Amino acid sequence: MFYYFSLFGVLVSLIICLYFKSFDFKSSIIGIVTVAFSMVYETVLGGYFGLYYYLNPKDSIIYMVLSAILLYPALNIIYTMFLPKKKKAILGYTATWMIAMLIFEYFSVISGTVVFTGWKPFPWSVVTYIVTYLWVYLIYRYLSNKRLSLKLS
Fold first, then answer.
1. 30-79, pLDDT tens digit by residue?
2. Are 54 and 67 in contact (CB under 8 A)?
C-alpha cells in the first residue's frame, strides 16, 4: 500500500504545485531525462545486478518502470519548480530534498516497498542523490542560460 500511496501522493503534490507554479520547457526536459535516467538506473542496479527489488522479485520490474515513468520525474519536476535562484539557497534546498528522499527511502524499506538485497543506503543512496540532484541542477541551469541567450539573440 505504501507504494501506491506514495505514487498517488507525489502525483497529487505535482498537480497542486502546478496550480502555484507554471510548468515550463525546462521542467518538461528534466522530466523526460529523468525517465531515461531512472529506467537505466533501475534496470541495471535493481534488475541486472539484483541489488534491490520493489515489493516482490517477480513483479519488481513493473514497479520499477512505473516509478521511472511517474514517480521520479514528478519529484524532479517539483524540485525544479521551486529551485531558488541564489547559489547558497540552492545548497540548502538541495540538502533538504536529499534528506527528504533518504527519509522516503527509509519508509519504503520499512514498509517492504523496496527490499535491499545488496544495496547499502550509506554511502550508495547518498551518492545517488548527490549525482541525481547535480545533473538535474546542471541541466536546468544550462536550459535556463540557453533560453536567456535565445531571448537576447
1. 999 999 999 999 999 998 999 999 999 999 999 999 999 999 999 999 99
2. yes
Buried b (16+ CB within 10 A) or exposed e, 104-136: bbeebeeeebbeeeebeeeeebeebbeebbeeb
Closest CA to 90 of 128, 140, 127, 51: 140
Cell match 527490499: residue?
A: 115
Burial code of 65-80, b = ≥16 C-beta within 10 A, e = fewer?
bebbebbbbbbbbbbb
Cell, residue 148: 536567456
Model confidence pTM above 0.85: yes
